[in-house]
Design brief:
Helix content is about 40%, strand content about 20%. It is α/β, with parallel strands linked by helices. A hairpin with a 4-residue loop joins strand 2 and strand 3. About 50% of the residues are buried.
Length: about 400
């Protein structure tokens, strides 16, 4: 008999009743170090006082009014994001998939409104993940996710990641733009080479294409810069955000330059919940913390510390781990043994993490994590390695 809650996830038998900082507490009293952060979403950790206060205050006044009226909290958030980025205008929605849908619509509408309606195709990359809507499944291109959902939405071409010559070969008279993740999250914590991102910018300029960045997982400070593409010294034309933007409150956003944004006019796109006062209060509180002087530099320092510590573990446990990959606090350990065994061993030690593609276990802790807490996580990983080695010896 099917449960009341539809079984679309293989859920671990854990129920968390409260959190504090980087720790989660289960109903049975156990404490876990959270290096999954709700899949890179709880950017300020759990029960952050500033975020809680902002949400509580806004909820006590007004939570929702709809976009039929002005929303001062959304106007302020948009102005702050514009000031901190390449963008001239912002659209708010509810999730990463919605943000990516809006980004594709902006790319297509830009071409249509500039006299090029036949240009609608978007180049995407193998190993990408852009969401679960029908169009974003097509943009992702993963056969496993597409199975059973009928004809694939037309208009997406896939090429190997980090292969600029493959991109050049894929450009045709119907190409409108390119969408890329600066770091592929679900695909296995695979960073785009900085020279690859720069070359994509050059190609888009050369061919009159729109360059879109999917920063749903890599954005909002996760790499030590507000946005991961900033490490390459380039600016996209449009960018999607979600996950950490509101610290765990559901929210997405699309940031765009004027030449793209101006074509999404009144009535051409919309959302009921997107940019409501409560979501924007949460996102403004997150920005208060992330944009505070020294915060992102602190993320970078802690991330370097964690990278070095994980690199040492890889050297110590070559039978279990192959390499560390990623950037900032978006890291992964590529495993030589099944990732499910590694994740379970970590769980038994009290460490939460998230699996990704290519047999990688993902480490995406809250941005407030300290070096000492990273050391605790690494100690748990070492203990889990001993646990795995013992199990392997017993099986032999």
């Amino acid at each position: 008999m099917i449960p009341a809650l539809m079984p679309t996830y293989n859920r671990a038998d854990l129920a968390f009743v409260r959190g504090e900082g980087v720790w989660l507490y289960a109903a049975d009293g156990r404490r876990f170090l959270d290096f999954g952060a709700g899949i890179a979403t709880s950017s300020l950790g759990h029960n952050h006082p500033h975020l809680v206060a902002a949400i509580t205050d806004q909820a006590s006044r007004v939570m929702h009014v709809s976009n039929l009226y002005r929303v001062p909290e959304a106007e302020r958030l948009a102005e702050r994001l514009v000031a901190a980025s390449f963008a001239d205008s912002v659209f708010f929605c509810n999730s990463g998939a919605e943000a990516n849908e809006a980004m594709v619509k902006m790319i297509r509408k830009t071409m249509a409104e500039t006299g090029q309606p036949d240009r609608y195709r978007v180049i995407c990359f193998e190993g990408a993940f852009h969401g679960r809507t029908l169009a974003m499944l097509a943009a992702t291109g993963n056969a496993k996710y597409l199975a059973g959902f009928g004809p694939c939405v037309e208009g997406f071409d896939h090429v190997p990641f980090n292969d600029i010559e493959a991109v050049r070969r894929a450009i045709g008279p119907e190409t409108a733009g390119i969408i890329v993740e600066p770091i592929q999250g679900e695909g296995g914590i695979r960073p785009a080479r900085l020279e690859f991102l720069r070359a994509l910018r050059d190609i888009c300029d050369e061919h009159g294409l729109v360059l879109g960045m999917d920063e749903i997982q890599s954005g909002m400070g996760r790499t030590g810069r507000l946005f991961a593409h900033q490490w390459a010294g380039i600016t996209p034309d449009v960018m999607s955000l979600a996950k950490g933007i509101a610290g765990g409150f559901p929210m997405g956003a699309v940031l765009a330059r004027e030449w793209v944004a101006k074509h999404l006019t009144a009535g051409s796109h919309g959302t009921t919940f997107g940019g409501n006062p409560l979501a924007c209060a949460a996102a403004n509180a997150v920005l208060d913390v992330i944009l505070a002087p020294g915060f992102l530099a602190g993320v970078e320092r802690v991330a370097d510390h964690l990278w070095n510590a994980l690199s040492a573990v890889v050297e110590e446990c070559p039978a279990i781990f192959e390499e560390v990959r990623g950037a900032g606090l978006m890291l992964g350990l590529k495993c030589r043994v099944p990732q499910a065994h590694v994740q379970q061993a970590w769980l038994e030690e009290g460490l939460l993490a998230v699996n990704a593609g290519e047999n990688v276990v993902r480490l995406v802790p809250p941005l407030i994590v300290s070096a000492a807490e990273c050391d605790q996580a690494v100690a748990m990983i070492r203990a889990a390695c001993r646990r795995l080695a013992s199990a392997s010896a017993a099986a032999a």
